[in-house]
C-alpha cells in the first residue's frame, strides 16, 4: 500500500470528484425523476482494512451517491454531504458488484458480504470524512435494515 503516515483512506483527494447530471440528461437517459445522479470525473482510490487493499472506483462511474430519502435531508444529511459523499461512491460500487470479485489496485480481487460493504462505509469512509459516531451508527443501522438486498441475502442477516 502506498498510503503515507497520517494520510486518510482516500489518499487526500483535493476536492470535488464528480459532476451532477442535468435533469434533461437524466430524462433523456431514462433515469427516474427527482433523484440526482453524478458521474465520477477521476478514479477514487480508497484503502480498506476490511477489503485488505485499495479499492478503485473507476472514472465515469455513475451513482446517486448516498441514497438518502429527501424527507431525511433536513434531519440528517444530503446525499452529497461531505461527511458521506466520497464514501457513497465506494459503497455504491461495492453494492453494484454485490460484493463479488471487487478489483483491488494491483490486480487482486476480493469478495465482501453486504455487511462488510456497509462497514466499509460506516467504519472506514465516514470517520475519515469527519462524520461523528452518531452519524456513522445511524447510517449503519439504516443500511442494515433498509439497504438494497443482494441475491443471496437472508432477511434475518439484516438484524445481526
Overall description:
By secondary structure, this protein is of the alpha+beta class. The chain has one domain. 29% of the residues lie in helices and 14% in strands. It has four helices and seven strands. It has helices at 23-28, 85-96, 114-128, 133-146; strands spanning 18-20, 38-40, 44-48, 53-57, 62-63, 102-103, 109-110. The strands form three sheets. It has a three-stranded antiparallel β-sheet, with helices on one face. Helix 2 packs antiparallel against helix 3 (114-128). The protein is globular, with a radius of gyration of 15 Å.
Outline of the structure:
The chain starts with 17 loop residues before the first strand and ends in a 14-residue tail after the last helix. It has helices spanning 23-28, 85-96, 114-128, 133-146, and strands at residues 18-20, 38-40, 44-48, 53-57, 62-63, 102-103, 109-110. A hairpin with a 5-residue loop joins strand 6 (102-103) and strand 7.
**End-to-end CA span:** 32 Å
Using only C-alpha atoms, the radius of gyration works out to 15 Å
- Oligomerization status of the protein chains: single chain
Strand order of the largest sheet: 1-2-5
Kindly report the average pLDDT value.
85
Q: List unreliable stretches of 5+ residues.
A: none
Helical region count? 4
Largest sheet: 3 strands, antiparallel
Q: What class do helices, strands and sheet pairing give?
A: alpha+beta
Quick tags:
7 strands; 14% strand; 3-stranded antiparallel sheet; 160 residues; alpha+beta
SSE diagram, text form:
Layout: E1 18-20, H1 23-28, E2 38-40, E3 44-48, E4 53-57, E5 62-63, H2 85-96, E6 102-103, E7 109-110, H3 114-128, H4 133-146
Antiparallel strand pairs: 1-2, 2-5, 3-4, 6-7
